[in-house]
Design goal:
This protein is of the alpha/beta class. The protein contains 16 helices and eight strands. It has a single domain, classed as Alpha/Beta hydrolase fold, catalytic domain (Rossmann fold), CATH 3.40.50.1820. A hairpin with a 7-residue loop joins strand 1 and strand 2. Helix 6 packs across helix 7. It is found in: Endoplasmic reticulum membrane; Golgi apparatus membrane.
Length: 423
């Protein structure tokens, strides 16, 4: 089926048809989400919210009209999305994975609905804060209810195979960390085909810069910032961190400093593109598309942290890196756990502080979705919180007495979802 995907060597040489398809999809999504929920911005942009209807108006007819409008928009978005996929030459594996993804989401829907309600209606969530000039340069903030003193901050970069990433995917993590008095900034970035890997790295770096320079306005501590990424987001954020360290080691001008990042958490990430291209091709992310996302094989070294850190020219940059902790499940078939093991070995080889923590039998989505939705004790979550609160006796005492996290999805649905997960 690889032959169904024609080689695409440069996104900027695509003809206008694909571009128009994508822009139609993006605009429709923006209209759909904006119609229902409005947007919130920060900075030089005005805050916008669609006005609510007066209480005395007939809500039933309004709800029916909105529901019909949403259904029509959803149908059109779906049709255009499939048209775009067909234009890009994506074969049957992507279609089957889309079906599996839909079933997977349906099984986890009881949890997703509860998280979505908090995301859209909780006063703790500040949505779509503008951090740059690009349409996807937005971030969500999850703020603790306790406002006493500056809080530690986690900058989180979501995954999504560099294609379907979206800041709201970090809602569950953001809400749960906010309960432990930790501010979370979920950074959005351009996905393919709207952008390629250099655009993604640039966007995330801008988002980190925004947080480092302005998080104090939201009660955050600019001297206690932690960078975290999951899957593709782990790869992008690792590239951002290493690129920033290299720039600083060369004396280049920067808008934020690696020294502000107290630790890096990488969850189920891939850090060597040379080792991943064939693996992803066999799993349906075809070589031609992957090369387009990563701007060709000539860019593999630049966007492979495992390879780049070994370059003798970057030895000084390695000394600037914060402690790095990587988490991976041993049954992760989307990105094998060797990806994290090899990066840690490379980092240690140049004198950087790095650690890999493996979770036996865990899949690509167990650590980030199924386990948090299961509630109760979560070793990964507890580990991350303990690192962030290290040295803060009061916070550690609160963590020790915190009630178990609420279960959001019945166990039988979680097991079925794990079985059919396309990841």
């Amino acid at each position: 089926m690889a032959s169904m995907s024609p080689p695409i060597h440069d996104l900027r040489q695509h003809d206008e048809t694909a571009t128009h398809f994508y822009l139609d999809v993006r605009c429709l999504i923006c209209r759909f989400l904006g119609f229902i929920f409005g947007t919130e911005t920060f900075g030089n942009h005005q805050q916008q919210q669609f006005p609510r209807k007066p209480e005395n108006m007939e809500r039933q007819s309004s709800f029916s009209r909105d529901l019909g409008h949403a259904a029509a928009e959803t149908y059109l978005i779906t049709r255009l999305t499939f048209t775009l996929l067909r234009y890009l030459g994506v074969g049957y594996r992507w279609y089957t994975r889309l079906v599996a993804l839909a079933c997977y989401a349906l099984l986890l829907m009881p949890g997703f609905l509860q998280v979505a309600y908090c995301y859209f209606f909780s006063s703790q969530v500040r949505r779509s804060i503008v951090y740059g000039d690009q349409p996807r340069n937005r971030l969500d903030l999850y703020l603790p209810t306790n406002t006493d003193g500056p809080k530690p901050v986690v900058v989180f970069v979501t995954g999504g195979a560099w294609i379907i990433g979206y800041k709201a995917w970090g809602s569950l993590l953001g809400l749960q960390l906010a309960e432990r008095d930790i501010i979370v900034a979920c950074v959005d970035y351009r996905n393919f085909p709207q952008g390629t890997i250099s655009d993604m790295v640039k966007d995330v770096s801008q988002g980190v810069s925004f947080v480092c320079n302005l998080i104090d306005r939201f009660g955050g501590d600019p001297n206690r910032i932690y960078l975290m990424g999951q899957s593709a987001g782990a790869h992008i954020s690792a590239c951002v961190l290493l690129e920033q360290a290299i720039k600083e080691s060369r004396g280049e001008s920067t808008t934020w400093s690696v020294s502000q990042i107290k630790a890096y958490f990488g969850l189920s990430g891939g850090y060597n593109l040379f080792n991943l291209v064939d693996h992803f091709h066999n799993r349906g992310l075809y070589r031609s598309i992957f090369l387009s996302i990563m701007e060709g094989e000539g860019s593999f070294e630049q966007f492979s942290p495992e390879v780049r850190i070994k370059d003798p020219r970057n030895r000084e940059a390695a000394s600037l890196l914060p402690p790095i902790k990587l988490f991976h499940g041993t049954s992760d078939y989307s990105i094998p756990s060797d990806a994290s093991i090899n990066l840690v070995e490379s980092l240690k080889g140049v004198g950087a502080e790095a650690e890999v923590i493996l979770y036996e039998g865990k899949s690509h989505t167990d650590l980030f979705l199924q386990d948090p939705l299961r509630g109760g004790k979560d070793d990964l979550f507890d580990h991350v919180v303990s690192v962030i609160h290290a040295g803060d006796e009061e916070a550690l005492a609160k963590d020790a007495s915190a009630p178990p996290r609420k279960r959001l999805v019945p166990e039988i649905l979680l097991r079925l979802a794990r079985h059919i997960s396309p990841f």
